Amino acid sequence: MEGQARPDDALATIATGATDWDYPGPHCLAVSPQAADIDGLNHTNNAVYVQWCERVAWAHSEALGLDLSDYRRLDRAMALRHGSYDYLLPSFEGEALMLGTWLTAGDGKLSMTRRFQLRRASDGQTLMRGRWDLVCIEISTGRPRRMPPEFVAVYQAAVVPA
Description:
28% helix
């Protein structure tokens, strides 16, 4: 493979490169479709992208300093109110992909917005964009509640301009 970029090199370039990401400084997760992820159309099933979005969102929250144990301790969670996905290009078994996420809006009280972008390592093409509108809930009741100060401090500091 002399003279050729390895998939790991391409992933590192995408993850750290400022170009072609919708927003600066994404929190990234490397993913690759496996045989079980492939649907009857011979490409990655769209539901797999949704699962990957959940994984990268939790990884981002944990990297910021809030995990599930914090949510339980505070009896608060950021719950998905609305999710939308634009599937732009297919991905296939074994392809090296990079999924980035950002918090792009937050009122510091009740809601915030998370964005996603999935890119292929080999050519940098964007395969999917997603958006989640989240609302803070009290876990014990499921009812909307104000964000606790810990949420405001951590999440508001991570918001990038949309």
